[in-house]
Write a structure and sequence with these properties.
Layout (H helix, E strand, L loop, with lengths): L32 H10 L5 H12 L13 H8 L14 E7 L5 E6 L5 E9 L2 E5 L3 E3 L14 E4 L2 H15 L5 E4 L9 H13 L8 E5 L6 H12 L5 E5 L5 H7 L8 H15 L3 E7 L7 H10 L5 E7 L13 H13 L4 E3 L13 H7 L1
Bound molecules: S-adenosyl-L-homocysteine.
Length: 374
């Protein structure tokens, strides 16, 4: 907001109360039906205006409040003059700054926030499904060595409307309803867990997704996993989304080499927290394991990983490294990937290999943003 944009306390639109005067004035995207009804009533409007707003925000995908033509014009105009904190419009949508489409249809969007920052979101089409890879923060403080996002540090966490907006943006651009959402874009979701849980609630209650189609990926933050399980039960009524833990190494020494923050979180403590998460939620945990050529992709690493996960209700997802400019890591050879997969399978570990998607579109998360904003 510019210095000349003094909010008008008296509100020139007459009987309409000043929306920005409500202490918790925030964008509408992310609010459920009853919150929208309440908000409409606080604005001196009829309750059914909340249902209309809900329909326009989620089913119709309105980008600005002035598009919601069913609302009284004077009200819309009054609101347009007094946007909430943290957005340029009451709806809370972002601006598309750049789009890059790979040959396989994978679509990477660079979205601009109201405060001039940018985040990445990716739409990944596959037979019968459309997965949206969303960001939970602008940048990331975890500084994992192989990750492009980590190179720039953290700018700030995203608010719920900025997370939901990413799913709506992919729906709009790709002309298709997303079926799956993975929190595997920029940021560490467990450092922004309340907004992430609010967003999961909105995706399920307001956009009709199933919790089971949502995956939250974390590299691990000490003492947060059991709390996440409990908060999910309180906030969502159940914790059915998939928790994916970025393990990346079968032992503490190698893990610390790749993930500096692992220093403060011994691998045994991380696994113990995963067990508690399973006990509280009744859901098995997935482990992600990035394969870096010659570093952690040898048969002995597969053996050690199988040993570490023995008796654990889990699934391992192998991710061949996507090269980033700043590091010299190598992609694993196809033979190494296959023998690693077989090594786990032979030891009765459920395992899959993530197919490389959109490699021609700056596939590694954070790369597009670094190239365009550096
Ligand atoms: N902070 C969370 C979520 C974001 S990263 C986490 O670490 O889990 C999502 C996944 O992409 C993680 O498993 C991460 O390790 C992986 N990843 C990051 N950079 C990568 C790269 N260059 N190539 C392949 N996978 C990468």
């Amino acid at each position: 907001m510019g210095s000349d944009a003094t909010p008008s306390k008296a509100n020139a639109a007459g009987p309409v109360p000043d929306p920005a005067a409500t202490p918790e004035a925030r964008p509408l995207l992310g609010m459920g039906l009853s919150a929208l009804e309440q908000w409409a009533q606080q604005q001196g409007q009829a309750k059914f205006r909340g249902r209309q707003l809900h329909d326009w925000l989620y089913a119709k995908g309105a980008r600005r409040l002035e598009e919601v033509s069913v609302l009284p014009k004077a009200w819309r105009e009054g609101l347009a003059a007094t946007p909430p904190a943290g957005a340029s419009d009451w709806v809370g949508r972002s601006r598309e700054l750049h789009r890059s489409v790979a040959r396989d249809g994978t679509t990477k969007l660079l979205l601009g926030t109201h405060d001039g920052l940018s985040i990445e979101t990716v739409g990944i089409p596959a037979e019968g499904r459309l997965t949206v890879c969303v960001s939970s923060q602008v940048g990331c403080p975890m500084a994992c060595r192989f990750c492009a996002t980590g190179k720039g540090g953290l700018q700030r966490s995203l608010a719920v409307h900025e997370i939901v907006d990413q799913v709506l943006s992919v729906r709009e651009v790709m002309g298709e309803r997303p079926s799956h959402v993975v929190f595997m874009g920029m940021g560490e979701p467990l450092l922004n867990s309340e907004a992430v849980l609010d967003a999961i609630d909105c995706l399920c209650s307001d956009l009709g997704m199933a919790q089971r189609q949502i995956t939250l990926s974390t590299v691990g933050v000490p003492r947060t996993l059991p709390t996440l399980a409990e908060r999910a039960l309180e906030r969502l009524g159940r914790a059915q989304f998939t928790l994916a833990v970025s393990l990346h190494a079968p032992d503490q020494r190698l893990r610390e080499e790749l993930i500096p923050t692992a220093h403060a979180y011994p691998i045994e403590a991380l696994l113990e927290d995963c067990r508690r998460y399973v006990a509280i939620t009744g859901r098995r945990v997935s482990f992600e394991y990035i394969l870096l050529g010659g570093l952690n992709d040898q048969p002995r690493h597969a053996t050690a990983l199988a040993q570490l996960l023995r008796g654990f209700q889990s699934h391992v997802n192998l991710i061949p490294y996507n090269p980033i400019e700043e590091e010299e890591f190598q992609r694993p050879s196809p033979a190494a990937v296959e023998s690693f997969r077989r090594g786990l399978q032979e030891r009765h570990v459920a395992v899959s290999v993530r197919a490389s998607r959109g490699l021609d579109a700056d596939a590694a998360c954070g790369q597009l943003r670094r190239r365009l904003t550096a």
